[in-house]
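batch_manifest entry 22 of 60
target: UBA domain-containing protein
source organism: Hibiscus syriacus
requested by: lab member K.T.
priority: normal
notes from requester: please return C-alpha cells only, no post-processing; we will run our own comparison against the previous entry in this batch. if the run fails, retry once and flag.
--- input ---
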Amino acid sequence: MPNIRSTLPSRLRQLLSGETTISPIKLDSEPPPQIKAFIDKVIQSPLQDIAIPLSDFQWEYNKGNFHHWRPLFLHFDTYFKTYLSCRNDLLLSDKILEDDSPFPKHAVLQILRVMQIILENCHNKSSFHGLEHFKLLLSSTDPEVLIATLETLSALVKINTSKVNGSGKLIGCGSVNSYLLSLAQGWGSKEEGLGLYSCVLANERSQVEGITLFPSDMENDCDKSQHRIRSSLYFELHGLNTQSTEESIGNSNSTRVIHIPDLHLQKEDDLVIMKQCIEQHNVPPELRFSLLTRIRYAHAFRSPRICRLYSRICLLAFIVLVKSNDANDELSSFFANEPEYTNELIKIVRSEETIPGNIRTLAMLALGAQLAAYSASHDRARILSGSSISFTAGNRMILLNVLHKAVLSLKGSSDPSSLSFVEALLQFYLLHITSSSASGSNIRGSGMVPTFLPLLEDSDPNHMHLVYLAVKALQKLMDYSSSAVTLLRELGGAELLAQRLQIEVHRAIGISGGNDNSTVYGECSGYSDDQLYSQKRLIKVLLKALGSATYAPANSTRPQNLNESSLPGTLSLIFGSADKFGGDIYYSAVTVMSEIIHKDPTCLPALLDFGIPDAFLSSVLSGILPSSKAIICVPNGLGAICLNAKGLEAVKETSALWFLVDIFTSKKYVLAMNEAIVPLANAVEELLRHVSSLRSSGVDIIIDIVNKIDSFRDSSSFSGSSSLEKVNESTAMETDSEDKGNEENRCLVGAVDSVAEGISDEQFLQLCILHLMVLLHRTMENSETCRLLVEKSGIDALLKLLLRPSIVKSSEGMSIALHSTMVFKGFTQHHSAPLARAFCSSLGEHLKKALTGFGSASGSFLLDPKLIPDDGIFSPLFLVEFLLFLAASKDNRWVSALLAELGNGSKDVLEDIGCVHREILWQIALLEDAKLQLDNDGASASSAEPASQQQETSASDAFEQRLNIFRRFLDPLLRRTPGWSAESHFFDLINLYRDLGRSGGIHQRLGIDGSNMRLGANNSTTSNASGTANKKEYDNLRSYHTSCCDMMRFLSFHITHLFQELGKVMLLPSHRRDDSVNAPPASKSVASSFSSIALGHMNFGGHVNSSGSEASVSTKCRYFGKVIDFIDGVLQDRPDSCNAIILNCLYGCGVVQSVLTTFEATSQFLFEVNRAPASPMDMDDGNVKQDEKEDGDHAWIYGALASCGKLMAHLVASSFILSPFTKHLLVQPLGSGDVPFPRDAETFVKVLQSMVLKAVLPVWTHPQFTDCSYDFITTVISIIRHIYSGVEVKDVPSSSSARIMGAPPNETTIATIVEMGFSRSRAEEALRQVGSNSVELAMERLFSHPEETQEDDELARALAMSLGTLKLTQM
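--- output ---
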C-alpha cells in the first residue's frame, strides 16, 4: 500500500526562509538517546538517593535544547516538593527550629550543580518553571547553598553576548526578584558606611592583620566604630505595634526597630537569632526574609571565611537581579539607594593587592552584567543610564590599565582566580566593543590593540581560552574600525596572528614547527577536552581575524606580503588536512583565501606559486566534509579562483564543480544540506552568473543530479544509503557555529552518522528532491541558465523525476509540488514554450491512463468507504493533480505559452481534462450522497455516539473552511492584493497548505476519516482478536481512502483554477492598458473547448450502477450543482466582470440554455417534493420544526438551485457582462454552434435577460414559491431585480476619454421627481444616466426617453418585494 498522502509540513518553510533546520525525523521533538538514558537513570533511582546518579554528571552532548531536559527538571521539582516545601527553616514559619530531619545539603548541591550545567548549555530556557523552590533555597542559612542557588539562577538568566543590542530575550525571575534585591543590598548603603567596597575591604584587612575585629587595644576608634556598625542588626518594622525589649528601641507607635549590636559575638546560629526576633517582635511573614538577610550579613563577621562568602553572595545576587527581565522596579529601588554602585565595583576591581581574585572577578562580572543588560533591553538601559555604566574616560583608562597589568601578570601564573579575572575582563571588553552604546563606540576608538597583542604570544595551554577572547576582541574591533586594522598591521599584529595560527595548525596535525613555542605544545600532547575545544575555537577565530586584517581601504597596496607571511603555507595545510579540522575551520580558511583574492586579484599568481588554490581544489575533489559550513563555502572559493584566467582553467580542468552531484545525492550530506541548501543555491547561482564559461557545465551538473536522483528506486539502490559512508574519526576538530549560542559545547562531527542512519530511504529521496528544487529555483532565475536547461532537455528529465508515484503520494509530495511551482515560474516567456509542450505531453499521458481506469470501473462508486481504493485509477489521478497544481498556481509566467499549446497542438489534452473532470465531479457527488446516507443511517440506528459524530462533523467543516481559505487565496477573482512578491506568495501558500494538512493529516494520525465515513464499517463488530497488525492495516486503508477523497476535491479545484488562469490570459491586454481585446485563435480554441466540456458535463446523465439502476436524483442534483459552479467560476474574470470570450462560446454552444433548462426541471422537482400544507392546522409550532427539517433534507435540491441562481444572476447583470473593452466580443460567434447572435452587445444582454426571465417566471408565479427556503426566494428576487433594472454599460475610465463618475442619487432629488408623476425606479435610472443629482438634467432625460408600457413589470417587481418582505417576516 502506498504511503499516506499528507500536506505540507513546516519543515520546508523553515528550510527556505533560512531558519534552523528541521529534519523529517524531527530531531528536536525527541531527546537524543544519551540524554534520555541519563534522565531515565536519575528518575529510576530512589528519590532519597538522587545525588548518586548526579554526582558524575558532565556536559558531553551537542547543542542543548532545554525541552529535552524538562522531564529531569520536573523530577527535580518533585524532589524539592518532597524534601523542601514543608521545611520550617526555609518557610520561615513560627516553628522555624522544629524540623524533624536535617537539611539535605549534599543532594541539593548536586541538583543545583546539574541544573546550572544544563542551563548554561541550553537555549529555550524561557519555558523554565519552578522558581518557587529557589525562594525557599534563598532562605537557607548555609552560604554554600546560597551561592549554588544564585549561580544556578545566573545560568538561567544568562544573556547571550552574541544577541545583544536589543535582540536578546531576557528571562525573568518573578517573585524571586524581591529576595534578590534584599541579598544584593548587602550590609547597607554607602552613606551609612556600609557600602560593598568598605565592608569587603574591612574583612580582608582583618584577615591580613591576623587580629580580632574589635580588640580592646585597637588604636583607630573610627575603624572600631565602623566594625561595630557592620556587625550590628538594625531592622525597622513599619506600621507595627511591637513590644519593646532591652534590645529594641521604639521611636513611635507606628515604627519599631530591632537593634542587636555586636551580633558577630553571639554563638547562636542564624535561625536561633531569627526565632528570638520573631517571638519577641511578632515579625510578620512578609518581612521575615529581609530580617533573616540582615541577620545573616551582620552575623557573617563572626568568621572571615563566612564574610567572604557573603561578599560573593552580595555580588551574585546583583548579577542575577540586573539580568532578570522583570526586575525593573527592584533595580530602580536599588540604584536609588546606591547611585555609585558601579564605582564601588570599579574600586574592588582596582584593589589587586588587598582583595582576592574571586571577589574581583565577581565584581568584573557584575560590570559585564550591567553592560549586557544595558545593550539587550531598552527598559533596562533606561534604568541603568544613571548608574555610571556609561563610563567616563578616566574609568575606561583605569580598566584598561587593570587589564594590561592582569595580562602581564599571567606569565608564570597558575592561579585560577587570576585566570578567571582576566577572562572576565576580556569578556567585558568584547561585549563593550560589540555594544551599540555610546561608551562602546568610544572604546572602539581607544588604544586597545596594544593591550591585547601580548596575549598572542602566550604559549601556555591553560591560557588558550584567554588568547581566544583576545583574538576575538581584536577581530570585532577591526570589523568596526578601519583604524584598528591599520594600527594592528603597523604593530605587527597581522604577522603575530599568522604565526599563532601556524603554531596551532601544526600542533593539530602533529607537525613540529620551527618556533620555540612548539616545544611547549609537545609537552602537552595529551590535551584535555577543554583545551582541545579551546584550540578549535582559537584556530577558527584566528582565521576570522586574519580575514578582517586584510581590509584597509586607505591602503591600496597588497594587504600582506605573501612572500614573508606564514599564512599561505598554513592555509595549504588546512586544505590538505580538512578532515582533521572540521567544517567551521575549513569554511574560515576558504573565506580568508577568497577575501585575499577579492581584495587584490593580482595576488592570485603568488597564491598559485604557494599552492593554495591547488590545495583547495584537491580538498574539493577528495570529498567535502558533511558540514553545512564546508558545503556553503566551496562555490565562493571557486568563484574567487575564477577571477584569474589560470585559476579558471584549473577549475575547468579539475571539474571541481562536479562536487555538487555528490552532496545532492549522497546520504551522508543530507542533514548538512538541510541547513546549507539556501545559501548554497545562492552561491551556485552567483557563480554561474558571474563565470559564464562555467554555465554550460553547471547545467550539465544539474541535469546529472536530476537523472541520478531519478535512478534511485524504491529498493535499496540509494547512493550512500545501504552502506552509509562513515566520517573520518579525525574530524574531531569540528566546532559548532556561534549561532548555537553556546561556546562551551564539545561537539564532534561523528555524531552526524548516527542521526543520518535514522533517515529512511523514502525520506532521503524526498529531501534530495527538495534540495534540488531549491537549487533549480535560484539558478533558473538567470535567463541564460534557463535557456541552456531547455536546450539540454532538462525539463523532460525534471518532469520524469517529479512524476514518480512514490513522490507524488509521499508525505513530502505537496512540499515538492509547491517548490516546483516556484521553479517553473522562473521560466521567462521566451523559454516557456518548451515547458508548456513537455507539460502537456506528460499530462496527456497520465490523463489517458486515468480515463482507462475510469472506463474499466464502469461508473462504479470508486470512493465507497467499504471498498479499497483502486490504485490503478487513483495513482494516475495523483499525478494529474500534481501536474495541474503546477500549472494552476497563480502568476505563472508560462501560462500564456500553455494557452497557446492547449489551443493549437494539444487540444486533445483539454478534452481529456474535461472527461476526467466529469468523472471526478460525479464521484464527489456520489461521495456526498453516501455521506448523507451514512449520517442518516447512523442517526436512525443509534444516538449513542453524539460526541464522535460531532467531532467528525466539525472535522469536515474545518476541512471545508480551510479549503475555502485556500480557494480564496488562489482564485484569480478573489486575490487582487497588490505588492505580493513571488517569495511572499510561496510562504503564504505553504502556511495555507500546512493548515490544510492539519485537517487531513490529523485525521490520518488519529484514524478519523475526513469524509465522515468509516472504511469497512461492516468490520466494526469484529473482536479484538484481529490483532494489532490487522488494526494497523485497517488504519492505513482508511487513511489512504481519506487521501483519495481529498485528492478528488483538490483535483476538481485545480481543474477549475487552470481554466480560470487560462481565461485570465485571454483578456490580458485589457488588464494592462485601456484598449480593446482581440481574441487570438488559441484563445478561441481553448474557450470553445471549455464550452464543449461544459456542455458535455450538462448533458451527462450519470452512470448506471452495478445493479443496473440509475443513480439517485439527489446525486444528479449534487452533480449538476458542481458543474454549474464550475461554469460560473470560469466565467468570472473579476468579481465584477465576466470573461467575454468564455461567455460568447458558452452562449454559442448552447450551455446557457442547458443551464436554464436544468434550473426549470430542478425547480419543478422541488415543488413536487415540497409538502403543501393540507390545512391551517398544519402551521402550528410543532410543524414549523418539521418544515425546517424538510428544508435540511432537501439541501441537495437547494444546493443545485443556488448554483443555478448564482450563474443566472451573473447572466442578467448588464454591469457584469458589458465592458467597453470586451463588449465587441459578444456580437459574433467565436466558437462552433448554431445559436444566432444579436446585432450588438446591449441586445445580447437583453436576450440573456429574456431567456432567464422565461425560466424564472414559472417559479415566480408558482403557488408554492412562498414555501421555499429563504435563500432560494432571495436569489429569485435578485434575478428579477437585475432583469428589470435594464441594460447598463459599465463605464470604465480610459486615458483618452476620462469620465468622472457621478454621485449616488439623492433622496431629496428622487422625491422631487416622484412628485412630478414619475415612478421611483425611473427617477433613479434617470439620475444614474445623467451622472448627477440635477433635477433639470434628469427631467430632460425622462422626456427624451418616454416610458414604455411596463405595468406588468411594475406589478411583478412589487410582488417580488412583497414576497421578500413576507418571507422575512416568517423567518
